[in-house]
Design a protein that fits this description.
Quinone Oxidoreductase, Chain A, domain 1; 12 helices; eight-stranded mixed sheet; 2 domains; 29% helix; Rossmann fold; alpha/beta
Amino acid sequence: MDSKTIEKVVREVISERAQAPGGSQSNGRGPQAESAPGTARVAVLTAKETFELRNYPLRPIREDEILIRVEGCGICGTDVHCYKNDPFKLCPVILGHEGTGEVVEVGGKWKMDSVGKPIAVGDKVVTSLMETSDACMIAKYSPLKANLCDDIRIYGLLPDEPDYRLNGYFGEYVIVRPGSSIFVINDMSLKLRVLIEPATVVCHALERAKKSGANLSFRSRVIVQGCGPIGLLMIAVLRTYGINNIIAIDGDNDRLEMAKRLGADHSINYKDYQNANGVAERVGELTKGFGAHFGFQVTGVPQAASNLFKYVRRGGGICEVGHFVDAGTATFNPHEDICKKEISYVGSWAYGSWEYPNAYHFLQRAAKIGLPVEDLVTHSFPLDRIDEAFRANIALQGIKLMITPR
């Protein structure tokens, strides 16, 4: 037997013994890898641009819960918006939703993860969404549109509750509640697991684009405007999907270079041009004078959203991915930009829990074909340097920054 098979057999034996009468239990609830401490250290955002390191009690888990020891969590643009402005009025809150960790304790009611894999102590996992309320008519009548529910709940963006305080991954432990989605991912590195949550965003955007009516095929010329972490993953998912002509647009040459490593054929630094018309001329040169078949708008800048209409050909399409918070109003000419061009325009909002398997299979495939997706995680900071990490993120130092407990 190889080492992976031996490891799997050992884990199964330990799990079976732990669940057997007289086996190692945690207060009779489920198997436990080792004794969890009485408290968990967490970074609490208490006010704008203010983190406090605190120790919260780590209560015993219940039959329908899972305890995860955090291994790492990426800093998302949404985390930065919360840090700067608290737009969702969550403070005090433990942020961090691009996280992953190891199962420490499994409540007796949990047998499988959300796709039917056995779940046991020692498994590496990612968590996603919690079930929406029964009052949500969208989830009730259009379950595949549950991402549009007003009460969508994501770990790391949950309010502090007396009974559920370990809600986010910027800490040492997370308690997974009943009704949550969770996925066992034992065959991926820490960096790839940290990228799974943002990868669901681009996988969802790709599906939205495919349903827009605009043509996406091997011959399509596609623009990705904005080369932050999501934009770069967007390029990688397009290349993995089979798009062979990708144009990256950004104002940072280092990120444009990374865009090429991840599959972009051409790059345009918009700062090299006087205005959007100059960029449009360059796009025309790269697309036989017609413009792109499709464009993904992955910045949070309203002017960029307006400019993208100039870069897309008649009969083309646009997917808006970048505006997860209200950054203001974008302008367009309904006649010139949409009607005359017969543009297909779609929005993309977050993701559904069912898209996690699609996301981690995309990352595995991207790595297999040689795209350096792991290189997107450029910096790692321990929890006690979280303020420094957020300042570095705001200053655009690196691409994806990760927080680890130690």
